[in-house]
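BACKBONE GEOMETRY TOKENS:
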Amino acid sequence: MKLLTVIGARPQFIKAAVVSRALAVHHPKVCEVLVHTGQHYDTNMSDVFFDELDIPKPDHHLGVGGGSHGRNTGRMLEALDDLMAREQPDWVLVYGDTDSTLAGALAAAKLHIPVAHIEAGLRSFNRRMPEEINRVLTDHIASMLFAPTALARNNLRHEGIEEAKIHVVGDVMYDAALYYKKRARKPQWFDSLGLESFALCTIHRAENTDDPLRMRGILDGLALTETVIVLPLHPRTRKQMAEFGLDLPENVLVVDPVGYLEMVWLEASCRVVITDSGGVQKEAYFHGKPCVTLRDETEWVELVESGANVLVGADAERIAAMVSRANNIRKESGGFYGDGNSAKGILGKLFE
């Protein structure tokens, strides 16, 4: 049995690490071919994760990155088509909702190779988001869909996907949170900041970074808060802010992108998380931190409905108000996303 795993972005490295580890333990005779598309090509956004998470170095690196969504997907599709034809895997595994996810699923489907989609069934119901298009198309291509929650399963049912293809297994990100929490590492620079309390912020979604009005609203909201905010600044966000002539507020401390183990420490140690990342919303929940989300909708609907997550969009006053009232946001962890054995469940279904 040969699996070909397609990854290309930071959240996928984390998810793949969990499944690859379970594969080595429970199915050591299965061959996994790891393919990195290069979607995240910056060292701090990519290479460091393979070292920290004990992921084997990719068998293939496609070097595709830095272009538009359409160009990236097309270039990945072309390269993956050639690679899959040579490797002849029995299954192709894809994760989440990136351009790499869609390219991997399309390339496999064209070659009649079955696709397993891990983290299937999520919906924000905003088709302007490239991630929404990627996840919807991938779900309808896949032969096996691993949904993290019952709500995700229901989304797939409503779209007419066959029940036999859908398996609710929990979330591999919860597996990762439990496994890596004990290995979390304080960033070397943190003590020099002299902080007793801080908020952690991440901003990278195109819907925010590519819109100067939304970016200005978010920055104005951060400026109105009465807390120090640590912001590991995504390269694209830095580039877009410079292009729009936007400056960061004085209470925002910018640091370079951090590794996963450092991010886990920051999430577990902060007072509140402010983010537009889907993965970070969940990680805040896993670590029992209130989350203020800089989006108008989210695919993690259950977090909003439970009160653990608050959507504020790019409204400056609402951002400031909810960050200031973060102690009133519900804090809990676990519950929605399985028991921490999602990867084992995925492999059990894949090989049964």
Summary: The chain is about 45% helix and 15% strand. The mean pLDDT is 92. The two ends are 13 Å apart (CA to CA). Residues 15 and 240 are 28 Å apart (CA to CA).
